[in-house]
Write a structure and sequence with these properties.
Elements (H helix, E strand, L loop, with lengths): L5 E2 L1 H4 L6 H11 L4 E2 L8 H13 L12 E7 L2 E12 L14 E5 L2 E8 L12 E9 L11 H19 L18 E2 L6
Length: about 200
């Protein structure tokens, strides 16, 4: 049986993981060898195009499908998974939750979330009705146990993807995102991850 080729962490989600995020992914799944799966190697360009299309869908923005990037690290004879997913929202689909403006950070069980508002000529979003993007990095190992990843690492990865997408979409003022994950606003508890 032929072993599937492996890549470095940064290549698992092309353009979405900066060097710090790639290291955080490695710590989360405890591997430096990631399976090369073209169906899962979703990058910044594909995610940006899907978020743009979602905003242009108007009231159906929340129904739009944005491809997820699944990272699969090889560990011994098995593998460990984590996923990076982004979603779109806007006021055109109805009111958002209170306090849903600007850069928002939350953490939950085995996940980190960074959300931001994007004013983009490319997407057609405005300051009055911005494209609201949520970046979630979640540890999907079946039995994380005592070696579970850290909240800080989860946020580093979610922040890296948020920065990459804000750049890809040309969000005004970088969507207000800080250059470093350490400079994000304090995190609030997140709702449980969707299965």
């Amino acid at each position: 049986m032929v072993e599937p080729p492996t890549v470095e962490a940064a290549a698992a989600c092309p353009g979405l993981l900066n060097a710090e995020a790639a290291e955080a992914v490695q710590r989360t799944v405890q591997s430096s060898a990631f399976l090369r799966d073209e169906g899962q190697a979703v990058g910044a360009v594909a995610v940006g195009a899907a978020l743009e299309a979602a905003y242009k869908a108007g009231a159906k923005v929340r129904e739009a499908v944005v491809p997820e990037c699944v990272v699969t690290g090889q560990v011994g004879g098995g593998d460990r998974k984590a996923e990076l997913r982004l979603s779109a929202d806007s006021g055109r689909a109805g009111p958002s939750a209170p306090g849903g403006e600007g850069v928002r950070v939350s953490v939950g069980e085995r996940q980190g979330v960074v959300a931001f508002d994007c004013v983009s000529a490319r997407a057609g979003s405005t300051a009055e009705v911005p494209l609201r993007v949520t970046s979630v990095f979640a540890d999907r190992r079946q039995k994380p146990g005592a070696d579970e990843g850290s909240t800080a690492d989860y946020l580093v990865v979610a922040h890296s993807a948020a920065l990459a997408v804000a750049k890809e979409l040309g969000c005004a003022n970088g969507a207000g995102l800080p250059a470093k994950a350490a400079d994000l606003p304090p995190a609030a508890p997140a709702t449980p991850p969707a299965s």
